[in-house]
Structure formats: structure tokens, C-alpha cells
Specification:
Helix content: 55-70%
Structural class: alpha+beta
Low-confidence stretches: none
Shape: rod-shaped
Strand content: 15-25%
Length: about 150
């Protein structure tokens, strides 16, 4: 991302320099051959700079889209395993707090398996069915992306 940002800035500098350079010499020149000599390379540099700027724009758009998407849903983070399944880090739902995993019937109700619980940054892997949900913790769950997107 950083490298493409540098390319974007570099392409902007090339476009500005070429515009100034060619504009100055065309305005001051009386020779048609000299004008063509400056215009042809200008078009080549401008075209390559536009390609770099466009590619950087796509990367920037994708980055901003993901940033806005993550800001809109700040309660969880996820890792996409494939198109169908993902791993999520979520806060416990209000109806789960104070109850055990078995009481909530988490797997059946939400279509996800709890693979870990993080409290104050310390992970607990594979909690038992008797584990009681607490408010200040994060659940690490694996589930189908489509089902999880509906409940989150």
C-alpha cells in the first residue's frame, strides 16, 4: 500500500513537471519540429503516469472501502478463510452474558463454534460448555460468513 502511494505521488510530480516543461517550451518555440519533439515524449510520460495514478486510485479506493466498512462495524474483526467461512473476534451478545455456552446453545443458535476467548489480551483456547460468558471479553468464533454477517 505504501509503495503504491509513493507511485501515486511520483506520477503526480511527473504530470506537473511535464505540463510545465512542455508548455514553457512550446510557448517559447517558433520551430514546428522542436514543438513535436517536446509533445511526443510528453504524451508518453503522461500516459504512463495516468496508468500508475489509476492503479493507485483503485488501491486507495479499496483501502478506504475496507476502512469505512471496519469503522461501521467496530465490534468485531475477522479473517476470511475462504469465500464461505471466516474466523471472527466479537464481543458476547447481551443475551449471553452471565450464561454458560451450553445454556445459550451457541452453536445451534448462531451457527458458529467458539474456538477461543480473549480477556484482557490473554487467550483461552477451546472453552468448555460450562464456561460463563462475561462482559469484558472477546469471543473468537469460526462460522459461515453469510450467517455471521446476518447476526453481526
Amino acid at each position: 500500500m505504501f509503495v503504491l502511494g509513493i507511485f501515486f505521488c511520483f506520477s503526480g510530480v511527473i504530470l506537473a513537471y511535464n505540463g510545465f516543461f512542455v508548455g514553457y517550451y512550446i510557448a517559447s518555440s517558433q520551430n514546428l519540429f522542436r514543438v513535436l519533439l517536446y509533445i511526443i515524449p510528453h504524451g508518453i510520460f503522461e500516459f504512463s503516469s495516468c496508468i500508475i495514478a489509476t492503479a493507485s486510485g483503485f488501491v486507495l479506493f479499496h483501502f478506504l472501502f475496507r476502512l469505512v466498512y471496519n469503522i461501521a462495524k467496530p465490534d468485531f474483526d475477522y479473517i476470511e478463510l475462504d469465500k464461505k467461512n471466516s474466523i471472527y473476534e466479537i464481543t458476547p451478545f447481551e443475551e449471553c452474558i452471565g450464561k454458560t455456552i451450553k445454556e445459550v446453545n451457541f452453536r445451534t443458535k448462531y451457527g458458529a463454534n467458539i474456538i477461543g476467548i480473549k480477556k484482557e489480551g490473554v487467550p483461552m483456547i477451546m472453552p468448555t460448555a460450562d464456561y460463563i460468558f462475561k462482559k469484558d471479553e472477546h469471543l473468537v468464533v469460526v462460522g459461515e460468513t453469510e450467517k455471521m454477517d446476518k447476526i453481526l
